């Protein structure tokens, strides 16, 4: 072949490869080596490209055009279950050629296809030449996830900047109705109102609600306390007249400059008619610039009313956005969200217990479902219950009624903080879910011994529990009893396994994904659930105490002898689906909004489509293990 033509082919190969990962990040020398050594082969529809019978693979393959189906060989029922389709830019057989063993899959062209072929010896050289390619081949899905996280970080950094910027109009920072007194009000009345409303300053406004003065806490000592001013005098006598006023359309940056220039900590915000809209403090501007984990946690612990807790709840959502913008992974992100939501819930419970005088009662507040698994996203409703101990000789009905009254207040306050009441009434205020330890054992035991469809559904919700606050020993005792009992009823586990296999990963035989009529995939029902349901069964079999899906997979997988790289790939797949769910949930939507967990795969970039497909393949492998274990 003439040199010019050869160079054109190599250039065309390079151009194609750089459209896909990991080739788009490979070192120029390594990419040139690959483009130079790879040859393009045609495979007609229905032809076999690679099978286990062909022995150790002689080539590494990269699909250039067309579709190639990978089939895991075995019994007919399993073969259909384990088919997957590869499209342009996807490679095979990474594991077999790296380990220099026969492939476990058969690769067949399902339409006329062109596939790059790289000789096996050149593949091994390429792994030595290119650290990027080496990481890709040894940590396939983890490598793709890292790239996706970088893209996501860039996208969300822009979004965070838009939502959390010093160009925000002051009108958007004012969150509550203005509080003020008339100039003729007594100093005592103004101070009492400051104390009652827990505010650091009092605005004085005229009959038209136009501000004419301000009195701050720092003014009290020199103007009121030390001079011994009569508290019955009108507040106009001690106020600062002509306070610093800014328009609601002015920016946070303008406010910061005004504070710095004049050395003030409070600015009065007015509308276009000059009427008071509210007060912006130095703290408000600091919060706008940076909402941190410690700050949110401190605001929760210091909250002593519902309004303060509602502000903290909004801060949690803003912090989640910031963490995504910083490139935090899905596991850490959901742990942050769960930890802060835990703190918020515990504070709400503590305040309610004090009002209902429940000190000294031995109890545990249980979180079920996603909260019980430490897997809350920004869209989760309430799922909770109570275990309690009734002291000998005490009136159990009276004690339970007191707990239920407290729980109702907690549930309502959680709803006010953005966690909707559970439509299925899975809440601690439901008498059916406020039980003693023995009553919970009886409830769980009935489901295990008589696993009808409703019992199996209950198990998927209630077995994923953890103690959120209160006596953790009660939860530990119930978990130990539950694991022992479930293992003894193999039919129960088999029926749970059958139930878990009712939803298959939405992978198509020809098309990449199977979508619903509206062109979307529900990543909660057809994504995360695939991992969650299997992990629950493995945990019961392997006597794992954790309720977290990731920890269940890690611990149960290790105890069952699963290879570490297989466990890691499963977890990476689960994490990516969780990350996509978080990306689809926006700060300006309500919890559990209809589209919160839905994505349109056609709207994803090529990298994310590829990782999502791999994540679903990992889910299919996990389900296949369950299918084989229980001969389903």
What is the strand tally?
21
Fraction in beta strands: 5-15%
Unreliably modeled segments: 1-5, 74-81, 587-591
Q: How would you classify the helix and strand content by structural class?
A: alpha+beta
Domain CBS: 174-231, 239-296
Domain Cyclic nucleotide-binding: 22-127
InterPro entries: CBS_dom (IPR000644), CBS_dom_sf (IPR046342), cNMP-bd_dom (IPR000595), cNMP-bd_dom_sf (IPR018490), Diverse_CBS-Domain (IPR051257), DUF294_put_nucleoTrafse_sb-bd (IPR018821), GlnD_Uridyltrans_N (IPR005105), NT_sf (IPR043519)
Protein name: DUF294 nucleotidyltransferase-like domain-containing protein
Question: Would you give an account of this structure?
Answer:
- With 632 residues, the chain is of the alpha+beta class.
- The chain contains 25 helices and 21 strands.
- It has a four-stranded antiparallel beta sheet with strand order 1-8-3-6. It has a four-stranded antiparallel beta sheet with strand order 2-7-4-5.
Brief summary:
This protein has 632 residues and is α+β, with helices and mostly antiparallel strands. Helices cover 52% and strands 14% of the residues.
Q: Which short descriptors sum up this protein?
A:
four-stranded antiparallel beta sheet, 52% helix, alpha+beta, 632 residues, 25 helices
Task: Indicate the topology.
Blueprint: H1 3-17, H2 28-37, E1 39-43, E2 48-50, E3 59-65, E4 68-72, H3 76-81, E5 83-86, E6 91-92, H4 94-99, E7 105-109, E8 113-119, H5 120-129, H6 131-138, H7 140-163, H8 170-173, E9 180-181, H9 187-197, E10 201-205, E11 211-216, H10 217-225, E12 240-241, E13 245-247, H11 252-262, E14 266-270, E15 276-281, H12 282-289, H13 293-302, H14 306-325, H15 330-356, E16 363-367, H16 369-372, E17 384-388, H17 396-416, E18 434-436, H18 437-449, H19 453-462, E19 466-470, H20 472-488, H21 490-500, E20 521-522, H22 524-542, H23 549-559, H24 564-584, E21 598-599, H25 606-629
Parallel strand pairs: 9-10, 13-14, 17-18
Antiparallel strand pairs: 1-8, 2-7, 3-6, 3-8, 4-5, 4-7, 10-11, 11-12, 14-15, 16-17, 16-19, 20-21
Helix pairs in contact: 1-2, 2-5, 5-6, 6-7, 7-14, 7-24, 7-25, 13-14, 13-15, 14-15, 15-17, 18-19, 18-20, 21-22, 22-23, 22-24, 22-25, 23-24, 24-25
């Amino acid at each position: 072949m003439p040199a010019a033509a050869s160079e054109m082919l190599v250039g065309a190969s390079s151009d194609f490869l750089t459209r896909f990962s990991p080739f788009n990040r490979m070192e120029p020398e390594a990419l040139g080596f690959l483009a130079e050594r790879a040859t393009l082969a045609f495979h007609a529809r229905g032809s076999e490209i690679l099978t286990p019978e062909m022995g150790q693979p002689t080539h590494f393959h990269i699909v250039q055009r067309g579709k190639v189906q990978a089939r895991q060989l075995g019994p007919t029922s399993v073969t259909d279950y384990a088919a997957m389709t590869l499209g342009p830019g996807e490679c095979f057989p990474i594991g077999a050629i790296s380990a220099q063993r026969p492939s476990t899959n058969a690769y067949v062209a399902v339409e006329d296809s062109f596939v790059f072929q790289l000789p096996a010896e050149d593949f091994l050289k390429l792994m030595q030449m290119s650290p990027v390619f080496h990481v890709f081949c040894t940590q396939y899905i983890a490598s793709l996830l890292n790239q996706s996280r970088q893209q996501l970080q860039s996208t969300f950094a822009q979004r965070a900047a838009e939502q959390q910027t010093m160009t925000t109009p002051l009108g958007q920072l004012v969150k509550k109705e203005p509080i003020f007194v008339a100039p003729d009000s007594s100093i005592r009345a103004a101070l009492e109102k400051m104390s009652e409303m827990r505010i650091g300053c009092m605005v004085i406004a005229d009959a038209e609600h136009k501000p004419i003065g301000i009195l701050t806490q720092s003014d009290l000592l020199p103007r009121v306390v030390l001079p011994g001013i009569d508290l019955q005098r009108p507040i106009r006598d001690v106020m600062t007249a002509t306070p610093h006023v800014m328009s609601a359309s002015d920016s946070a940056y303008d406010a910061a400059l005004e504070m710095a220039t004049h050395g003030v900590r409070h600015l009065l915000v007015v509308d276009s008619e000059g009427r008071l809209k509210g007060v912006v403090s130095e703290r408000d501007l600091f919060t706008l610039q940076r909402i941190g984990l410690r700050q949110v946690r401190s605001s929760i612990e210091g909250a002593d009313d519902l309004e303060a807790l509602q502000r903290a709840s909004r801060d949690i959502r803003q912090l989640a956005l910031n963490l995504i913008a910083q490139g935090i992974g899905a596991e850490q992100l959901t742990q942050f969200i769960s930890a802060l939501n835990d703190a918020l819930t515990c504070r709400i419970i503590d305040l309610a217990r004090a009002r209902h005088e429940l000190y000294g009662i031995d109890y545990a507040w249980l979180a079920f479902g996603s909260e019980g698994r430490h897997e809350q996203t920004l869209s989760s409703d309430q799922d909770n219950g109570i275990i309690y101990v009734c002291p000998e000789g005490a009136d159990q009905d009276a004690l339970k009624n007191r707990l239920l009254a407290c729980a109702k207040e907690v549930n309502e306050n959680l709803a006010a903080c953005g966690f909707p009441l559970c439509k299925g009434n899975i809440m601690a205020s439901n008498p059916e879910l406020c039980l003693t330890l023995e009553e919970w054992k009886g409830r769980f035991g009935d489901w295990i011994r008589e696993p009808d469809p409703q019992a199996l559904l209950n198990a998927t919700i209630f077995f994923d529990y953890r103690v959120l606050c209160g006596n953790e020993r009660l939860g530990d005792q119930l978990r130990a009893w539950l694991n022992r009992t479930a293992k003894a009823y193999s039919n129960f586990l088999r029926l749970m396994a059958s139930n878990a296999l009712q939803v298959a990963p939405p992978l198509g035989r020809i098309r990449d994904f199977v979508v619903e009529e509206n062109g979307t995939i529900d990543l909660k029902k057809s994504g995360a659930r695939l991992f969650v349901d299997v992990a629950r069964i493995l945990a019961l079999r392997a006597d794992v105490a954790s309720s977290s899906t990731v920890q269940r997979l890690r611990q149960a997988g290790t105890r069952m002898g699963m290879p570490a790289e297989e466990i890691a790939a499963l977890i990476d797949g689960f994490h990516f689906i969780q990350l996509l769910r978080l990306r689809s949930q926006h700060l300006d939507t309500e919890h559990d909004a209809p589209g919160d967990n839905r994505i349109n795969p056609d709207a994803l970039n090529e990298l994310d489509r590829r990782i999502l497909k791999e994540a679903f393949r990992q889910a299919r492998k996990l389900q296949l293990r369950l299918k084989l274990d229980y001969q389903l």
